[in-house]
Amino acid sequence: MDKIVSLCKRRGFVFPASEIYGGIANTYDYGHYGVLLKREVIDAWWRSMLVARDDIVALDSAIIQHPRTWEASGHLAGFTDPLVDCRTCGLRFRADHLDVSACGRRPSKHPGQTSDCDLTEARAFNLMFQTTIGPVAEEGATVFLRPETAQGIFLDFKTVLGFARRKPPFGIAQVGKSFRNEITPGNFIFRTLEFEQMEMEFFVPPDEAEHWYEHWLRARMDWYSELGLRGDHLRLRAHDADELSHYSCATSDVEYLFPIGWSELEGVANRGDFDLTQHAAHAGEKLEYFDQGSGQRYVPHVIEPAAGVGRSVLAFLCDAYDEDEIGGELRTVLRLHPRLAPVKVAVLPLLRKDGHPEAARALHAALKAAAIQSEYDEGGAIGRRYRRQDEIGTPWAATVDHQTLQDGTVTLRDRDTLEQERIAAADLPGELATRLQAPWRSPKP
Ligand code: GAP
């Protein structure tokens, strides 16, 4: 993990937020390449939900919803972590994670086993961030930053049903920020205070819930595999009954073998009719579906694949990180799926003279016009420029040289095989567009 954190900072993918003030706990900023990578992950998710299927519609609901939302959803009463404070060092720990300290600096011990830590009894600590609407706190209504995007979908179920011209089984998908006041041992972007979720609530006739639960388990595993995560680093783990969230009839986690061990990447839950029934009761509004064909009226059951953007980014980075040796020199390379790579192709003039920059810039412009993320780089020796692109995971590099000026071809170098071939510069946009659509497997063992 240290190597990934350091690469992310060195190349400006992800780095601590508020760094000039010493940072702020579990909060990170995404730089240029991080934003590009994150966007590709989100795009891939939307493609799988909206482009590849006809039974899902999109939504972008508000972060701050009516406060009663969280009463109905159970978050106000039950979305808590058990916390203990140390009377000696003043640090706060999760009582269920006492093997690691909250600040990540000092080891903690179980209550009563050490003189280092003098721990209080565990208290339930609600994870929702609270704020107020209105200029004066005392007069304002208390509201919460959403801890999951899902509830906005349930609140809009009836409205969406009205305009989407869909009937169960159908889904509503949303991507957006959620917020949780997490006390964590600081595993980089694995668990942060604010994070983006990619959630889809799939509304189904009650007797089809089991079928769709299985369907989404498979579909979500396939999504990660197709984007290059290695099969032996990916698994499904069903929750035991005592692990289930208050709303869930069944949940399985898609787990990835992170450097911190097997951990949740995404949760797929069968939420039954819990949410629609709760909101119907609290809002006094019927949230059901009337099937005119069969004359049946029912509250749909919900299957929910809920993924985290940052956590997916971390998994893709971990899976892609590699080191090898070229000509006796150590190379760091991100073997990202080309579709996820922040930059698809680097355009490199061999020399900063003799017409190379002009020809390279023309090729760069043609690639951009074809909507291919291209990066022009003329600074430094060619080997160093390749290394820089390898570190950010650029799958191809096109080098413009003397021959380009004679016959219009460039050298196309492959990040993984290191093979170089000559290809007509004019064909490059089309060739790369084709390669970007092709299936891809990680060359890592
Ligand atoms: N609506 C269901 C739900 O929110 P969850 O398992 O709590 O379920 C879903 O969250 C996903 O969101 C997780 O699998 C994870 O990828 C991501 N996630 C949750 N909390 C997070 C946090 N504090 N930081 C980063 N990602 C988080």
Q: Helical element count?
A: 13
Tell me, rounded to a whole number, the average pLDDT.
92
- End-to-end CA span: 19 Å
Which strand-content bin applies to the residues?
25-35%
Describe the structure.
The protein is of the alpha+beta class and 445 residues long. It is built from 13 helices and 23 strands. The protein has helices at 2-10, 32-51, 68-73, 75-78, 150-155, 157-164, 209-226, 274-283, 309-320, 356-369, 382-392, 402-407, 428-437, and strands spanning 14-16, 28-30, 56-58, 80-85, 92-94, 123-126, 130-133, 141-144, 170-179, 194-204, 234-238, 250-258, 261-272, 289-291, 296-298, 301-308, 321-326, 329-334, 345-349, 374-376, 396-400, 409-414, 420-424. The strands form 7 sheets. The protein has a 7-stranded mixed sheet with strand order 3-9-10-16-13-12-11, with helices on both faces. The protein has a 5-stranded mixed sheet with strand order 20-19-21-22-23, with helices on both faces. A 3-stranded antiparallel sheet has the order 5-4-6. The radius of gyration is 25 Å and the shape is globular. Residues 100-115 have low confidence and may be disordered. Bound molecules: glycyl-adenosine-5'-phosphate (GAP). Glycyl-adenosine-5'-phosphate binds at residues 148, 150, 180, 182, 191-192, 195, 197, 199, 264-267, 304, 306-308, 310-311.
